[in-house]
Amino acid sequence: MGLERRPQRAYRCSLECGRSRPPPQIRGRIGCALADVILADTRTVVAALQEATQIVPIVFAGVIDPVGAGFVASLARPGGNTTGFALLDYGTNGKWLELLKEIAPQLKRVAVLREPDIASGIGQLAVIQSAAPSFGVEVRPVVSPSPRPTRSPAPLSA
User: Fold this and answer.
1) Which of 23, 38, 46, 58 is the 20 to 30 Å CA partner of 80?
2) Which among 41, 57, 86 is the end of a domain?
3) Is residue 93 pLDDT above 50, yes or no?
C-alpha cells in the first residue's frame, strides 16, 4: 500500500495487486495521518481506511456498489466520513428493459444471466426486477455456471 503526499494535505491510497488487506503497520499509519482528506481507489482500500479512521474524510472513486458493500448508507446521503463516486449507475439497468421493450414490444419474459461472485450483480438485478412490472415483463434470474478450469496446453517438444 502506498501513501502519496499531495498538496493541501491530501493522500491518495492504493493497494498492491494481489493483496487483500494492507499490513497492520500501514493501517495504523493511515489512521494517524494528518490529512485533510484521503482518496481511495478500490473497495479493499476503502474498507481498510474505514477500519483505520472515522475522522479523516475518505473519498472513493470508481468503487462498484458502495451502498451494497456497506461503505455508505446511500449515494445521496452517505453519512459518516466516507463519500465518493460509484463506478456504475444502477439506474441504467432499468433502461435496459425499456430498450428491450422498444425493440420487441411483445416481450413478456427476460432472463438475466448473473454471476453470484460479482458484488455489483445484486444491485443490478434488484433494479431490473423493480423496473420489470412497469414494462409488463417477468424477470427470471439465471445463475451463470462457474467457468470450468481449462487444461494447460501440452508442452511443445523440440
Assistant:
1) 23
2) 86
3) yes
